[in-house]
Amino acid sequence: MANTLYVVGIGPGNPDYVVPHGLKLIEEAKVLVGSERSLLDFAHEGQLTHSVTGKLTELALWIEEQLKSHDVVVMVSGDTGYYSLLPYLKKKFPDTPIDVVPGISSMTFAFARIGEVWQDADLLSFHGRVPKEESLRYEAGRKLGFLTDKEHNPAAIAQILMEHGWPADTKSVALERLSYEDERIEHGTLTDITRLSSFEHSVFIVLG
């Protein structure tokens, strides 16, 4: 029987927010893959580990080798179905059994943190990509949720939105390090957010 590739969503990162089945798979894994931060949080002595970096081809070859003798558990931040490594793994391992365990996405966690529903929000990403121009249009009452990165942080996105017609006094919230002790949440107008520094891989919510 072929070994299984498990893809486990670890939510915002704090082990308290990982679903029990996913946590059990991580704890019992002989081979564990994840970001350097997640490996520090979850890996234990005796596990064979490999960190996820920008060298995905190298990672895929390593996973392929390990699958010859063991199941492999791959931890992905947030939820498995929301801008995760899952599409890449499905493409690289089309004939391997893949078992997916969902997690809490950083977006849903962020909306929960500020007590807002996200069912009526448009979810976009500036994390390693740029949304289409038309998706940034202003509309009164429109709610947006963004994943961000180092270049397109909340300050940069706030400026971009104002250049696309969003009023400078639009309410917004920048959130980073969600679920950790040093979690940071900043409320303000778009103008206020343009003055924020150091926010990088975070979530930015706009409450139009």
TrEMBL record:
NCBIfam families: CbiE. Pathway: Cofactor biosynthesis; adenosylcobalamin biosynthesis. The keyword S-adenosyl-L-methionine applies. Residues 4-193 form the Tetrapyrrole methylase domain. InterPro entries: 4pyrrol_Mease, 4pyrrol_Methylase_sf, 4pyrrole_Mease_sub1, 4pyrrole_Mease_sub2, CbiE, Cobalamin_biosynth_MTase. GO terms for biological process: cobalamin biosynthetic process; methylation. It comes from the Bacteria. Keywords: Cobalamin biosynthesis, Methyltransferase, S-adenosyl-L-methionine, Transferase. It comes from Veillonella seminalis ACS-216-V-Col6b. GO terms for molecular function: protein methyltransferase activity. The keyword Nucleotide-binding does not apply. This is Precorrin-6y C5,15-methyltransferase (Decarboxylating), CbiE subunit.
